[in-house]
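All the exercises in this workshop are built on plain-text protein records. An example says more than a description, so a record of this kind follows:
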Amino acid sequence: MSFAESRPLSAEDAGLGTDNLLYRNQFVLGHRYRGELRSWKRLKVGKSWYLTVHPDLNTCQVASDNIVITLLGYLIDPRDSEARDEEILRRIIRDMPGPDGFAAATSSYGGRWALIIADRGSTLLFNDAAGLRQIFYSHPGSTGEMWCASQPGLIASHLKLDLDPLAVDFVDSYAFRKNREFRWPGHSTLYRQIDHLLPNHCLELETGTVRRYWPVRALAASSPEQAMEKAAPLLQGLMNGISMRFPLALSITSGIDSRIVLASSRGLKEGFRTMTVRQIDMPEDHADITIPKLLAKRFDLSHDIVKSSLLMDDGFVSVFKRNVPAPHYIYAPDAQAILRHYGQARVAVTGSASEIARSSFRTQLRRPVGEPVTAQDLARLQGMGVHPFAVESFSEWLGGIGDLHGIDMLDLFEWEQGHGNWLAMCQLEFDIAWKDIFTPFNCRELLEILLSADRACRIEPGYELFEGLIRRLWPELLTIPINPHRDKKVSLISAIRTGLRRRLARLL
């Protein structure tokens, strides 16, 4: 494991390193510009905050009356495919009754973004629904300064912070090392003085105060049909909107997530391709290779097989290791293969984040809703054993939940831990390869619609809600098997139990 990011930036770093790849699509926010990042963009925010931004990360700023709103990344309006960032920012200001109305004013937008809202009295920082344009921040009480950035190393190198000994012990534990797709627990980082801003939270920059802003009310229950009727046009609108902004490469496998996104893309032609990464340990006859090929042939899709290789460029590997603290080395071959194939010319489209509505953790834990769930339970669910670093982090997360307003705590855990933490870091690591990354399910309104449907239609083995979306959007796609390599045989008793649970849940 490499912690190279904790050292100060060198002259080579300041010059952006190999082919502009170092810290690509990243940013730093503080009370002054980061002068050593000489080639980065500079943008003042409000009266006393300054953004230093990698040249490839899109920015947009709009001022109206006493409010200045600054965008990092991009926004998509599913109901207006032609709307661009500036127009959407003006709508947010128009629809926001005050600084505290930011959640409602942004809930319908997709994309991958962070927003800074500055008015006369305060400056608020928050991000997209799943936190995929991730934000880290220092504790001004222990560091003397408030700094925010896209990853903790950009803060730690500037403030010359030491690694947290307990975090280092966690990284060295077997539970951490055995998981090649490891993740961090809660809002923790390698540095005691730096935290991760999780989804559904906002940061008040002047005070360093973090507060949860969702959930705030119970979701109105929906039948599967009602949820499909609302979700299908949102998915189509999001795909239409992103296709009008960027050339796309939709990642498809044999799974249901990418099939839903493909169904939402029906009719997209110009600038639209599908692709599949053949990972280094994947045989040619794996379903995640053969099924995409079959889909491409049957439905006349432009499709690329991008082959990973262990033969890697030293320069690329060096930058990949330095882009974030403790990177996932397993992703490096895939990232280099993608970069070689597309050259950052396309935005990747993924089916991630639909898992937030799948109740997978509830299925794994096999404990009824309402029974207590401990920090130790959460650590085990994440494959972290009971290491004190993980247990302490999850204890803090549990203590900050508050009123769930009927949301299953384990669904919220999947949202904030599985996606706002692990997926967000994965996407940052793959910024080295793509122009950007788009996740259609990363839209608060859409996630609320999915979560409002009864759990029985959102879980295995049928995934009634999700297959129903495909049936509405592009039913012919269901003629090709979904995940045929997985054992879908269910005993008669299990099938009867599942049917009874669904019927009972609907009656209740």
Notes: The chain has a mean pLDDT of 91.
